[in-house]
Amino acid sequence: MRSKKCYLCGSSENITRDHLPPKSFFPPPLPKNLITVPCCKSCHTPLSLEDEAFRLWVAAVKDKSKEGKWIWEKKVIDSSFRRSPKLQENVMQFVKMMNPNISGWSEPQLTLSLPPERAEKFLFRITKGFLTHLYPEYNFRKDTFKGYNILRFVPRHNQIISELIDNCTHELISEGVFEFWHAITMENNGGCWVYRFYDSAWLAVFHSNETFPVTNQSPDK
């Protein structure tokens, strides 16, 4: 039976619904298969700034879908930046030039980074939400979560993507906007989640109640 308690804090008071991912990530019309989970108002209310920052980051990715371009132009440029020039000013400090020797592009490209703790906060949250929705019998409360940015332009990362998603269940929420792959071990050892935003931003989250043997990577564009 699905829980009616907040998936973040466990409260059963003042319950609303949290969309995974948030509705603001989608151009109109909204898909009919959006996933929601119970969330108390105390946890839900502060999430809008976190959502906005992460949406800005993934919408800034190179080679994004036409849906991603719509979000960047309408939701970021015409809305977020126009409403808050201070936000645009703050974002500029995270813009950097990516060396083509590293990126594989033919020439240097401007990229936008995001502090790892901010990216991970969003990723871990939606992973817990999907766990609540798809695996209600799985107890993730004692798990440790790790996030990774999979840079598609790095050849070995393409192999990593293929190996991960080959062993996962695929879920498509909206073409060109968001899809994900997931797998967990029901013995409560942990799980793997691969997210793709706007056809270009690939990210992975692993969680386990055991010690991770790998070092965390910064979610950098």
What can you tell me about this protein's structure?
- Helices cover 35% and strands 26% of the residues.
- It has a five-stranded antiparallel beta sheet with strand order 5-9-8-7-6, with helices on both faces. A two-stranded antiparallel ribbon has the order 1-2.
- The chain has helices spanning 41-44, 47-59, 66-83, 85-92, 100-103, 116-134, 155-166, and strands at residues 15-20, 35-40, 95-98, 109-112, 144-150, 169-174, 178-185, 190-197, 201-208.
- It has 221 residues and is of the alpha+beta class.
- It has one domain (51-221).
- The N and C termini lie far apart (40 Å).
- Strand 6 (169-174) and strand 7 form a beta hairpin.
- It is globular.
Name a few traits of the molecule:
221 residues; alpha+beta; five-stranded antiparallel sheet; two-stranded antiparallel ribbon; 7 helices; 35% helix
